[in-house]
Diacylglycerol kinase family protein (Promicromonospora aerolata), 305 residues
Amino acid sequence: MTEQYGGAGHIAVLVNPASGRGFGEGSGRAAVDRLRSRGAEVRVYQGIDAQETAVLGRKAVDEGPDVVVVAGGDGTVSSVLEPVVEAGLPLAVIPGGTGNDLAREHGIPLDDPAVAADLVLDGGRKRVDTGTVTADDGTVRHFVTVLCAGLDSLTNERTNRMTWPTGPARYRIAVYAEWLRLKRFGYRLEPVGAPALAQDGYLLGIGLTRSYGGGVPICPGADPTDGLLDVTLVHAVGRFRFMAFDGIIKAGEHVGRPDVTTLRAPAIRVGAPAGLVAYADGEHVGPLPVTVEAHREALTLCVPV
């Protein structure tokens, strides 16, 4: 449900200069200029990297803003999510990352930070789901779009090592590179409320939203407000047959195929062979096994009306 909102006072703007190879810093500057030009009281928190941005996020929340604005990508949003949700504050996103899939999901302008900033003052407020990933050692990470493990997480690792090109093209190149060394993984999925499943596969996506990697609809039926995780597992079908999945997944036509397993659950435990890591919101989470859980409408997001 989206509600109209009539304005804001003290606005905290968190800027991650490392997002999008520097794109986050420029987007943040444009957003701050727009908000100040409209008479808003703006306090800017800018670290030198994503880690410092996360620390500053808690400081910003402690200072009692009316709205928290994040200029960066999905990973930057998830890094400050815990204190924002705990405080019950609205969050606005100024897209400045590589994929920007949270903004894409909710119609937030991707290429105009000033217009995205206007949503702080003129936009609606929508309650959306968040997710947590809990490791066996008790470590908890938060996410807002998709968790992946397999070819997709290996692709993310390669993407984050690359310096060229920028934007979604970098992710596509990384996919092709990982295809050349394709591996199969023995997954074990234990969804809450459904039977456990053991299946060899190449990639696994667990989504609150539909897409990852800059608009790739790995979970095309995901509803970001239903409190459920959409799980997509592509089976190990052979290297050359799997090559065809690139276009099929980009078109969102993989769901319903006999070589793809999909399910929905409020929580799921995921196991796989030693060494396989999970990524969420394009950021490294850690090795499997992990337990993934959806939290229904835990976050208030600033969105177009």
Q: What stands out?
A: Residues 134-297 form a domain with the Tumour Suppressor Smad4 fold (CATH 2.60.200.40). The chain is about 30% helix and 35% strand. The chain has two domains: 2-122, 134-297.
